[in-house]
Design a protein that fits this description.
This is PiggyBac transposable element-derived protein domain-containing protein. The chain has six helices and nine strands, in the order H-H-H-H-E-E-E-E-H-E-H-E-E-E-E. The protein is of the alpha+beta class. It is elongated and about 70 Å long.
Length: 256
């Protein structure tokens, strides 16, 4: 707790002879050598059971896997599940050396740990999360986004929840699958996704505030909506129809 309230660059600095770093309250509790020995003995998993790097079941997060499972279980157990939730990614800033570190130049936080999360749309309460370990060597990540959404929503099936996400995750197949699992969903979608109506491929000549609406002829479940703001906004949804009007607030050019 004291280290959290008084953060330093290195743990050993709390015992430093330099008065700029030395924290007497911590140094008096335990000597540095004893502290290091205690940290060596502190484990969250049995390292002897960890598969080798080239063996099946190898997990970069093996040492933390039990803790991650415990946290996810506890987050779900201690909450009241709301009907409006969101699935998205979150970057935890980190510039040190780690095979888990990701580089995403278009994000505000460009380097760090990439975490997939399902959270409450209003309060931001975290229900469930996964830490991205990177692409497995020699494999192709087919359907990474949709598979993540399906895994993160396993505990809210048949609850009538509405889940939103962005165009990294959205596909026609995902929307249909979620609906059959009792989950309504809405997400922006890339116009080159498989299964979209022909109007999605046509050159856009819509006037501002005009819209297009189509429903899947295969399942009759997923609706395609395109609305022209300053640019076309393309959405797939199983939770709304073309007659639903909703007012929202947003910031544009420093104005609400």
């Amino acid at each position: 707790m004291l280290m959290y309230l008084h953060p330093l660059h290195e743990e050993t600095q709390y015992w430093s002879s330099n008065p700029l770093y030395h924290v007497q309250q911590i140094a008096d509790i335990v000597p540095l050598k004893k502290y290091k020995k205690l940290m060596e003995c502190l484990h969250l998993n049995d390292n002897s059971k960890s598969p080798k790097q080239n063996e099946p079941g190898y997990d970069k997060l093996f040492k933390l896997r039990l803790l991650i499972k415990l946290l996810n279980h506890r987050f779900i157990k201690e909450c009241s599940v709301s009907k409006s939730q969101s699935v998205d990614e979150s970057m935890v800033k980190f510039k040190g050396r780690s095979s888990l570190k990701q580089y995403m130049p278009m994000k505000p936080v460009k380097r760090g740990y990439n975490i997939w999360a399902r959270a409450d749309s209003t309060t931001g309460y975290l229900y469930q999360f996964e830490i991205y370990c990177g692409k497995t060597a020699g494999t192709m990540e087919v359907g990474l986004g949709p598979n993540l959404v399906l895994r993160l929503t396993e505990t809210i099936q048949n609850n009538g929840c509405h889940v939103t996400f962005d165009n990294f995750f959205t596909s026609v197949a995902l929307m249909d699958n979620l609906y059959l699992l009792g989950i309504y969903s809405t997400g922006t979608v890339r116009t080159d996704r498989v299964g979209l109506p022909i109007v999605a491929k046509l050159k856009n000549s819509m006037k501002k505030h005009a819209s297009k609406y189509r429903v899947s002829t295969v399942t009759g479940i997923t609706a395609y909506i395109q609305w022209k703001d300053t640019k076309p906004v393309t959405i797939l949804t199983t939770g709304f129809d073309s007659k639903t009007n909703v007012s929202v607030q947003r910031t544009q050019k420093k104005r609400q």
